[in-house]
């Protein structure tokens, strides 16, 4: 039996690597706090989606996966690991607060406040907090209230006579800041909102004596699929979102030493089993500490921010269309600015020679410059077609709003395909020129989101090569009409063609190894999970193909097994930015081919999404990608290697080696390329 690592446990390993960055004492305190907050946000989403899925799956079908674990066994291990992980988070937060206090940043409790701060807190409570609070009693006439997903609450037990208990819930308003800045001359002090509310509970619930209170937080299931068999996908998505908001709890978090009777009351009201209840020391909802991690005027407490350099491939280019006609151009975010993408769409919107713009949107920013440019294009009379993916998880409501806004501007909006998510990142501009119609294409690994383009590493490419333009037109015709999936010249498109493409390319490397021709595989992806791809990589390793895999998150492949995966190495790189780009390189008998795109090597990407990967044919751009992967592979600061025993261990510099942080080096490279005007 071939070795496979369980998907859920592999993801928990990834989150543990992020937590290790928070635990690393050498990191600056606000960077540590940022990593810690990210682990909490990650774990919330994991519970909402994956743990909820396992809970349902364990009741419906207990068939083992490739790793040999049944859903019930997975669920048991996941809950055990998550419980231990949350205790580690609490301990880590306690550790981080020490250097923060030394730097003059304090998270206070009410007992820490001086007279001036108490006066400030009292006035703030009376003026700004009390008017917003709504205490919710629970009795025969007032049933247990619905509590929002990820909401922080205070449960209150009161005595109504000697032997009678009555209960109430006070919601901590999410509309107010979680951490209240307090007046202080020399220090920066913050009071958690729930502490202030709890202090004044006797005023809020003054009818009965308060016997006990405690903080609790609910995480609800978000494991809902949209019914694609509908005449109106937009309305069906709205119904699904309403359903999600009222879904069952999948986790109940309580503060340490939570009152026993209050515990039993909540468990009964929420109908949640003990194994899904987590009692934790310290503060609940550690993700909220992201606000403290982002404090301004604290530059000495975090790594210096990497500012995007002007894109080297566009330095000195006044006409973006002329630049793309000259040769293909590439952007590497966030080391290089996202501005050329906005400039491209703005130029298309204003250019009288442009006839049409077509674009896919999966996740966009809150004040999207991309959407503004598309609106302007429609108002200027261009034919603008936008595929807005409604099923982008946790961005559904935003995308509904963006879609409506684009429709009002005169854009033709498509809301995804039945049964599939459209995850590819493609823009097509059709322009009339002196020698006829020319198509300009932008293809990318990441979303058209100018905010995350400063936080995630992604790659985009501009081209006007005719074959790419023909393919992009065919793709949009397939997405917006009733045409059959076309035969593509350059693009590799899921779900029809992508898995066969990867299996074929890996197969060719196997043939080259057997013929003693140059062979090799080098991938960079967020996740590697697909069983067929993993088995084919094992076959390639057995044939002698050297394989290097940079996999940020889930990896079900186990390297280093004799006669199975001894020629495979797997590393994961963590740093200031979230590694998000996907790069696939095949040695190809000495003529390497490089592909980049939107797809990870997971069943959902290969079988249930519209994804695009594409070849990088401009030699200088392919060389840049080789250099990028080479730098990342030599990283000995943020890199981890997956060992034969299934554990990840930090990559340590060899004796005499200098420390190499690949993200810092790529930032320096972008600056050097800018000065040199590109490759």
What is the percentage of strand-forming residues? 15-25%
> What is the mean predicted local confidence, pLDDT?
92
- Can you summarize the main beta sheet? 10 strands, mixed
Beginning-to-end CA distance, first to last residue: 47 Å
Uncertain regions spanning at least 5 consecutive residues: none
CATH class of the largest domain: Alpha Beta
Helix count, per DSSP?
19
| Count of the separate structural domains | 4
The CATH superfamily of the largest domain is known as Endonuclease Chain A
Number of strands: 27
Instruction: Write down the Rg.
Output: 27 Å
Helix content: 25-40%
CATH topology of the largest domain: Endonuclease, Chain A
| CATH architecture classification of the largest domain | 2-Layer Sandwich
How would you classify the helix and strand content by structural class?
alpha/beta
Molecular shape: globular
Describe the structure.
With 679 residues, the chain is an alpha/beta fold. The protein folds into 4 domains: 1-103, Polyphosphate kinase N-terminal domain (Methane Monooxygenase Hydroxylase, Chain G, domain 1), CATH 1.20.58.310; 108-272, Polyphosphate kinase middle domain (polyphosphate kinase like), CATH 3.30.1840; 312-487, Endonuclease, Chain A (2-Layer Sandwich), CATH 3.30.870.10; 494-676, Endonuclease, Chain A, CATH 3.30.870. Helix content is 38%, strand content 22%. It is built from 19 helices and 27 strands. The strands form 4 sheets. Strands 14, 18, 19, 20, 21, 23, 24, 25, 26 and 27 form a 10-stranded mixed beta sheet that branches. Strands 10, 11, 12, 13, 15, 16, 17 and 22 form an 8-stranded mixed beta sheet that branches. Strand 8 (249-255), helix 8 (260-270) and strand 9 (277-280) form a beta-alpha-beta unit. It starts with 6 loop residues before the first helix and ends with a helix.
């Amino acid at each position: 039996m071939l070795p496979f690592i369980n998907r859920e446990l592999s993801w928990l390993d990834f989150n543990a690597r992020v937590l290790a960055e928070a635990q690393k004492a050498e990191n600056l305190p606000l960077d540590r706090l940022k990593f810690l907050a990210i682990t909490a946000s990650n774990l919330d989403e994991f519970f909402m989606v994956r743990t909820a899925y396992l809970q349902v799956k364990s009741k419906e079908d207990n068939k083992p996966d490739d790793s040999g674990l049944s859903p019930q066994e997975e669920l048991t291990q996941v809950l055990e690991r998550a419980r231990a992980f949350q205790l580690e988070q609490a301990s880590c937060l306690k550790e981080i607060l020490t250097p923060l206090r030394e730097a003059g940043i304090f998270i206070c409790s009410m007992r820490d406040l001086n007279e001036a701060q108490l006066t400030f807190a009292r006035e703030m409570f009376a003026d700004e907090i009390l008017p917003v609070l709504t205490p919710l009693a629970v009795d025969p006439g007032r049933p247990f209230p619905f509590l929002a997903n990820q909401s922080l609450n205070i449960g209150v037990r009161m005595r109504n006579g000697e032997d009678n208990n009555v209960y109430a819930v006070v919601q901590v308003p999410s509309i107010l800041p979680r951490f209240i800045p307090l007046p202080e001359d020399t220090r920066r002090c913050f009071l958690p909102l729930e502490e202030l509310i709890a202090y004044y509970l006797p005023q809020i619930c003054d009818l009965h004596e308060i016997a006990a209170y405690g903080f609790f937080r609910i995480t609800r299931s978000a494991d809902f699929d949209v019914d694609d068999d509908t005449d109106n996908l937009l309305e069906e998505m709205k119904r699904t979102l309403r359903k999600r908001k009222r879904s069952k709890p999948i986790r109940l978090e309580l503060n340490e030493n939570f009152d026993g009777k209050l515990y039993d009351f909540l468990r009964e009201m929420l109908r949640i089993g003990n194994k899904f209840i987590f009692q934790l020391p310290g503060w609940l909802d550690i993700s909220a500490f992201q606000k403290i991690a982002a404090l301004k005027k604290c530059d000495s407490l975090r790594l210096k921010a990497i500012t995007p350099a002007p894109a080297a491939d566009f330095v000195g280019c006044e006409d973006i269309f002329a630049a793309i006609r000259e040769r293909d151009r590439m952007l590497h975010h966030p080391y290089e600015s996202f501005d050329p993408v906005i400039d491209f769409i703005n130029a298309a919107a204003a250019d009288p020679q442009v006839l049409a713009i077509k674009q896919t949107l999966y996740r966009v920013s809150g004040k999207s410059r991309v959407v503004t440019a598309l609106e302007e294009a429609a108002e200027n009379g261009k034919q603008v077609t936008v595929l807005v993916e409604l099923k982008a998880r946790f961005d559904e409501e935003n995308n509904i709003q963006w879609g409506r806004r684009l429709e009002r501007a005169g854009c033709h909006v498509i809301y995804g395909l039945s049964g599939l998510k459209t995850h590819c990142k493609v823009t097509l501009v059709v322009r009339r020129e002196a020698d006829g119609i020319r198509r300009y294409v932008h293809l990318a690994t990441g979303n058209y989101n100018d905010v995350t383009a400063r936080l995630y590493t992604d790659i985009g490419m501009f081209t006007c090569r005719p074959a790419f333009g023909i393919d992009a037109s065919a793709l949009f015709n397939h997405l917006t009409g009733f045409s059959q999936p076309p035969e593509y010249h350059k693009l590799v498109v899921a779900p029809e063609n992508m898995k066969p493409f990867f299996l074929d390319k890996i197969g060719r490397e196997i043939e080259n190894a057997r013929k003693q021709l140059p062979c090799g595989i080098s991938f960079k992806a967020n996740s590697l999970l697909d069983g067929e791809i993993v088995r084919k990589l094992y076959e390639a390793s057995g044939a002698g193909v050297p394989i290097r895999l940079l996999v940020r998150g889930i990896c079900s492949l186990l390297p280093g097994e004799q006669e199975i995966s001894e020629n495979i190495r797997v590393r994961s790189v963590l740093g200031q930015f979230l590694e998000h780009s996907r790069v696939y390189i095949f040695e190809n008998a000495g003529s390497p081919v490089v592909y980049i795109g939107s797809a990870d090597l997971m069943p959902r990407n290969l079988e249930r999404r519209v994804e695009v990967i594409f070849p990088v044919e401009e030699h200088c751009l392919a060389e840049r990608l080789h250099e990028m992967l080479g730098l990342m592979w030599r990283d000995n600061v943020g890199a981890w290697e997956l060992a034969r025993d299934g554990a990840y261990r930090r990559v340590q510099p060899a004796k005499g080696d200098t420390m190499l942080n690949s993200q810092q080096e790529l930032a320096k490279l972008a600056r050097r390329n800018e000065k040199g005007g590109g490759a």
